Amino acid sequence: MSLRDSLGRVATDLRVSLTDRCNLRCSYCMPAEGLAWLPREEILTDDEVVRLVRIAVTRLGVNEVRLTGGEPTVRPRLVDIVARLADLRPRPQLSMTTNGTSLVRMAPALRAAGLDRVNVSLDTLRNDRYLALTHRDRLGDAQAGLAAAAATGMAPVKVNAVLVRGVNDDEAASLLRWCLQRGYFLRFIEQMPLDPQHSWDRGAMVTGAEILARLRSEFTLSLLPGRGSAPAELFTVDGGWGTVGVIGSVTAPFCAACDRVRLTADGQVRSCLFAREETDLRTPMRAGADDAQLAALWARAVRGKRAGHGIDGPAFVQPARPMSAIGG
Ligand code: SAM
Ligand code: SF4
Question: What does pLDDT average to over the chain?
């Protein structure tokens, strides 16, 4: 069985949210006061996470597992979860998206447990702006976390940046220079309507085209062919080894080639970030469903995946859960 939808797309890349909690409060993701967290009893246990990923890997063709959240490093026993996932056969590629603030402490153990790669989110190089964007004074920790991840040999080390108009939209070139100097691969992500305040404004969004124009004023960018299912358009920089990516989730959606499926921290399958439907695996699992039954439910959930997110359409409705609760 594979996770094939009615349009023939096959999901092989599973994003697993380990928690909806976070130690930062990025304005486009979470309100400053935090959110009503999921009740503990609704969060999948370690055994349940490992079981569902095992089903995905052994029965449903998933070959890449990305841990996310919320902030995955605030999940208790994260290193142990990574080790158990790395023991699965066939062994999936294991990566994690993190704000990086805990990597100085955790990167060596995560690497030893089997984590292959990290993406670290970093939107600014200025302390005052980091504080304004995340409501926490942790820029130094995030930067040191990146260095710690690179020092373990995890490769490539990627950096995700969201530009917010009037806050950090003048930092595209400086972020790229900083990443190139350190061997990190930078990707800009257009801000999407997934903020809990529902204050996203299409007109105010910094577009991929705008980001490229800002970069081109300082660098020579050449488009790399062969985007495949990767969401980022990739460019070489000044003819060197480095690349920069722009993920135009809103203005250049990659839905037609999407190979992703998501599992929320409370055990719901989502076929898309913007899906308004979820398929509950936790309740049947706790009621005694066997692996074959859970795999069949999962496959059915993906079959109904929509053609696209429709952000630009008149009928678009923002999903009820914000990004931090879906798993970015
Ligand atoms: N806490 C981790 C982190 O920040 O990397 C993992 C979860 S976070 C939700 C995953 C990614 O989603 C981050 O790179 C973050 O910048 C991005 N993100 C969050 N809200 C977003 C939004 N409204 N639009 C675009 N990207 C967003
Ligand atoms: Fe936390 Fe990541 Fe959301 Fe920022 S983007 S609030 S670090 S979950």
Answer: 94
